[in-house]
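Tutorial, part two.
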Amino acid sequence: MNDIRDLYQEVILDHGTRPRNFHPMKDASHQAEGFNPLCGDRITLYLRLEGDRVLEASFEGVGCAISKASASLMTSALKGMTREEAETLFTKFHEMLTGERGGPIAEEVLGKLAVFSGVCEFPARVKCATLAWHTFHAALERKEGTVSIA
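Running the prediction step on this input gives:
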């Protein structure tokens, strides 16, 4: 590997081809559908909350490696978090992808999600990486219908 980008690409490919938490959840307390019409990515996100805490998170669907890897890493990161912690994580992730951070990547907050830092250089791929996150918000708020991020 030549640099950190090679490692990041390897992590994204690993999670994209062998996503974690990739299964339906029968006892989900929250669920939402997401769709990216620009590339055809589709996701169903499942959550099981107890009070304000995410106990379990899983997903199923079809999409590109970035979309699947983002959902895989997101569902792993969310487990055990409170809504407030999850909102903070979403904000930092979104800032990183859209270039709104105005400073260094908050790796201490993002953890493994920092592998998506290079996605901001490809604006069309930002929607692939954020589909799972917008679907997560819809699930938390129990929004009806499919989240579309065109």
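Residues 4-141 form a domain with the Sufe protein. Chain: A fold (CATH 3.90.1010.10). In part three we will examine how such features are distributed along the chain.
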